[in-house]
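User: Structure please.
Assistant: Input sequence and predicted structure:
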Amino acid sequence: MIMTPNIRKFALTTHITSSVGLLGSIAAFLMLTLFGLHSQDAQTIAAAYLAMDLVARFIIVPLAFASLLSGIIQSLGTSWGLIRHYWILAKLMLTAFAAGVLLIKLELISHAARLATETILPRAELLMVGRELMVHAAVGLLVLLVPVILSVYKPSGLTPYGKRKLQAPRLPKQKPYLSPKHPSQDFGERISVSPNGGSITVTLRRMHIFVLVVVVVVLHIFILHLTGAGMSHQ
């Protein structure tokens, strides 16, 4: 995938913004669960759980998919790659796992919001559900802090695929594989030099197809989520 410096900076900005926003929204969700658990006022409890439902569906979910998708695009658009380094692969798996758990728990969050708005507040059941949501929010916050730490420290370690790419034989006069410490060549293309000095760019079409499939799947899931959210409130 060919990315110009401006596009690369835009992808990085999007990834950082969505990731930081995701952490902040989950922290806000956690505080709402604490208010819902410890408040004795029925109106405050109902407001807290209704806010949790809105925050989860229309803030946390979009930010989670934006962080995941922008991270994939950014990795594929630089020499870091997506599956060359263990720390990048770990970031991908942790973010995808957190997004998957969030989608599974959306129905439980909506159930808690419905319980909180009942005329006779079922405190015992609401307390049990609220504690479960609090635990998931706290664990999710800790899980998503790990990718932040990995992004800062970038621990060394190549995957088997990354080692094969690093040790692959080079064509004569071909530019060597650039270390990620100085990423300047876009991943997704291979440069060879012709005898007359002209450059030939060979695009890795499989990587383009992979990115397209990921984008389509993520957008499909996101659209289904929004559609389901609208129907559930009718």
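The chain has one domain: 5-232.
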